[in-house]
Design a protein that fits this description.
Length: 201
């Protein structure tokens, strides 16, 4: 991190941990292998994009720590350490990596977020990274072959792509309307901050 955490950083971490929890309130829709469809991945994407890699990952870690302590903060009111022993464990832990990668890509080089890089970050971190951890763990827990597990997981891709697109739209709007919400060096008035959103930088 470029500087030590302050009260504002901690507040942002808490806000995004709460946002991810709130996105689980509508519940979930279990599909294959006991892995549910949930809106909470959208919160993970937004945390990485707005807070940056380290604080984004920290906000997800805080949420998961509370879940491990027994709070029912995952979609469907799930909580407790048992969550991390089931087929969804890899996906939950993948949220940490996902938020980190989203932040790295969206704010690559400390630059102002632009549409194409934001979209790339959402897919790379919010989908690919989470699947990369989630699928092997699901395969191990369910004792299904890795290839079969990966194939059945394709049912989640359309919904996750929709969440990635929505997250990109939200972040692009926030950069225009409320750049102070982002914890990045480009807000301090660097020359790069003058690059318009949507430009190919």
């Amino acid at each position: 991190m470029s500087r030590s955490l302050d009260a504002t950083d901690l507040a942002r971490v808490a806000v995004f941990a709460a946002l991810i929890a709130v996105l689980g309130l509508p519940g979930s829709f279990p599909l294959v292998g006991g892995v549910p469809i949930t809106a909470q991945t959208l919160g993970v994407m937004l945390a990485g994009a707005v807070l940056g890699p380290w604080l984004g990952a920290l906000s997800v870690s805080v949420l998961l720590a509370l879940v491990a302590a027994g709070l029912p903060l995952l979609a469907g009111g799930r909580g407790g350490f048992g969550v991390f022993l089931g087929p969804t464990a890899g996906y939950a832990l993948g949220w940490i990596l996902g938020a980190f990668i989203v932040g790295l890509v969206v704010h690559a080089g400390g630059r102002r977020p632009v549409v194409w890089r934001t979209a790339l970050g959402m897919v790379a971190g919010g989908i690919v990274a989470i699947y990369a951890l989630g699928i092997p763990v699901q395969s191990l827990v369910t004792r299904l072959p890795l290839g079969e597990t990966a194939l059945t997981s394709l049912v989640f891709v359309p919904g996750d792509l929709l969440k990635a697109a929505l997250a990109t739209v939200i972040v692009t709007a926030l950069v225009r309307a409320y750049p102070r919400g982002f914890r990045r060096s480009w807000r301090a008035g660097s020359a790069r901050a003058d690059v318009p959103v949507g430009a190919g930088v």
